[in-house]
Design brief:
CATH class of the largest domain: Alpha Beta
Largest sheet: 8 strands, mixed
Bound molecules: thiamine diphosphate, iron/sulfur cluster, magnesium ion
Number of domains: 2
Helix content: 25-40%
Structural class: alpha/beta
CATH topology of the largest domain: Rossmann fold
Strand order of the largest sheet: 2-1-3-4-6-5-8-7
CATH superfamily of the largest domain: Thiamin diphosphate (ThDP)-binding fold, Pyr/PP domains
């Protein structure tokens, strides 16, 4: 009987990319982080990358746990430091694809300066930000992305601080690829991840995702499924929209799509070009080879 059951046991479709020994995961029922992980796993499979050359770096928070569940070289770093860690990894191993996967509180509050300067330098990494509008793991404090009037545990009468518009922040800081989708747009999100990972330079994808336990509960919005329905009814797909026009207001229309897709020399291109100008033939191009940073 046991053998029969074992024989019937099917392999999980994502086993190749997940550390199954760490499952069950910590995320709440109807949390949106899981579908974004699925989108990343499918994107990596469809890109047919050598998984030994892909690294995932996360900071802290519920989203920060993603790195620990991915069966890749993965790093769970400290608050706000996923991007500088990824930058270091990229310059040490320019042949690898380096993906940062973290939350709005982590990447945009304490990590905000790293975010803008790494985009400014056009460092060849991909940053995926799960924006659930809140510091979820620590109890639902207000975040730099919390919409005006939305409640959090530290804004019980409604937030009065202007939030960041993340695609605008990324684009104006220098990102060469910028997109926003929700955790509901799973196929379009997968495509965005594939494009972002394939892009040379700083690519950024914002994923609006439900936090059922804190953001939805504190704002009496139902559970994650209710928020998914809200995304379904209120998302407007507008490729090429000017990022300055796509602010997110509390429970109103959400503009999604691909907003920026441009070409620009990367950090390592610029380093190499400058050193070549200064040192001529004596300079050996850094980061050549089989990765993103071809010389
Ligand atoms: C230096 C430091 N300060 C504070 C914390 C506590 N902390 C853990 S998770 C978190 C919020 C994370 O929010 P976000 O990145 O949005 O992730 P979410 O939980 O919403 O997915 C904070 C402040 C910490 N881990 N390290
Ligand atoms: S607290 Fe919110 S973000 Fe964290 S796992 Fe639960 S639903 Fe997801
Ligand atoms: Mg968050």
């Amino acid at each position: 009987m046991i053998t029969e059951v074992a024989q019937q046991k099917q392999e999980h479709p994502m086993e190749k990319l997940l550390r199954m020994d760490r499952i069950p995961h910590i995320w709440c029922p109807t949390c949106g982080i899981g579908t974004t992980v699925t989108a990343l796993a499918v994107a990596l499979e469809q890109l047919e990358l050598d998984l030994d050359n892909v690294a995932v770096v996360s900071g802290i928070g519920c989203t920060g746990r993603v790195a620990g569940y991915m069966k890749l070289d993965s790093f769970h770093t400290t608050h706000g430091r996923a991007i500088p860690f990824a930058f270091g990894l990229h310059v040490a191993r320019p042949d690898m694809k380096v993906i940062v996967f973290s939350g709005d509180g982590d990447l945009i509050s304490i990590g905000g300066n790293h975010f803008i300067h790494t985009a400014r330098r056009n460092v060849d990494i991909t940053v995926i930000c799960v924006n659930n509008f809140i510091y979820a793991m620590t109890g639902g404090q207000v975040a730099p992305t919390t919409p005006l009037t939305a409640k959090s545990s530290t804004s019980p009468y409604g937030n009065y601080e202007h939030p960041f518009n993340l695609p605008l922040l990324a684009a104006s800081s220098g990102a060469v690829y910028v997109a926003r989708w929700t955790a509901l747009h799973i196929r379009r999100l997968t495509t965005a991840f594939k494009e972002a990972i394939s892009k040379r330079g700083f690519s950024f994808v914002e994923v609006i995702a439900p936090c059922s336990t804190l953001y939805a509960r504190l704002n009496k919005l139902g559970d994650g499924l209710d928020l998914m329905k809200f995304y379904h009814d209120n998302s407007i797909i507008k490729h090429g929209a000017d990022p300055k026009d796509i602010d997110i207001e509390y429970q109103s229309k959400i503009t999604v799509g691909k907003f920026v897709d441009i070409e620009k020399p990367t950090f390592l291109d610029c380093l190499n070009n400058r050193n070549k100008e200064v040192f001529g033939d004596k300079y050996k191009i850094y980061g050549g080879g089989n990765g993103h940073n071809r010389d």
